[in-house]
Structures are given as structure tokens and as C-alpha cells.
Fold this protein.
Amino acid sequence: MLINIALIALCSVSFITDIKYRKVPNKLTYPLIVSAFLYHGYTSGLEGIKFSAAGLFLGFVLLIIPFMFGGMGGGDIKYLMAAGALGGPEFTLKLFIYTGLIGGVVALALMLKDRILFKFLKEVFLILYWFPAAKLKLTVGGSTIPYAVCLSAGTLAALIMPAVPLIK
């Protein structure tokens, strides 16, 4: 119950701050990470600490490559790390899958709104087809996604939905 409250607080505050300021505050994520370790350590001992560490590490691993290529900000990684420390590795993977699905729908809607979907698809095809022979860069422009909004929706989906078909 406390974990769910912390996760709902994480997604609520992050949703608002990412829309308003395009940031996920460290003042939110760091205390939640520490709290997750303290809570799980207190309730389950060393196994609880390992549980939090596994979720935190998985959250980092899943988003570090998109971050390195400029696809998202550091706050988004810290969001998933905090959620992972609170919910553990299975929850982190479930959250990641739901967030990806929601993010894909949001990206598709923005590309349709900006009328760049077909340009995007053409450039993706060229990159995939000519990649060995040419250095092409995806240049579709348009709107960007405040990804903590998708992470927040993914968190709620992961809390509400019983399971992702691919997990368990």
C-alpha cells in the first residue's frame, strides 16, 4: 500500500512538472529512491535491498541508450529508476512496456498533428534500407514528447493492469 502511494505521488508530481517545466525534479526522485531502499530493507532485510537495487538498475539500463542518443532527459531515467526501486524489477519491466506502448501512440498522434508521419516513415525506410551505404540522419522535426507524462500513464497502467502478456 505504501509503495503504491509513493508510485502515485511520483507519477502525479512528474506529470505536472514535466508538462509545466519539462523536468522531473531530483527533489522527488532521489528521496523516493532512498525511501524505497529503506522500506524494502526494513521489511525484507538484505533481500529487500537486492529487490530495490535490481529494479533501480533495470530502470537505468532500459533508458540509458535512448538518453545517450538525446531521446530523453536524465529526469526520465531517474523516474524509472525510482519506480524500479519502489516496485522491483518485474514492475519496472511492466512499466517500461506500458510506457513504450503509450509513448508510441502519443508519438504517432503528434506526427499526425504535425503532418510529418509520411516523411518520418520515408526517412526510417531510407535509414533501414541504405544504412550500410549512407550516413542518413532522421530529420523529421516537429513536437517533442514530455516523456514523464508517458511514464506516469505507464505507471498507472502497470498498477491497474494485472499483467503484461509477455511477463509471467
In short: Residues 123 and 129 are 10 Å apart (CA to CA). The chain has one domain: 2-160.
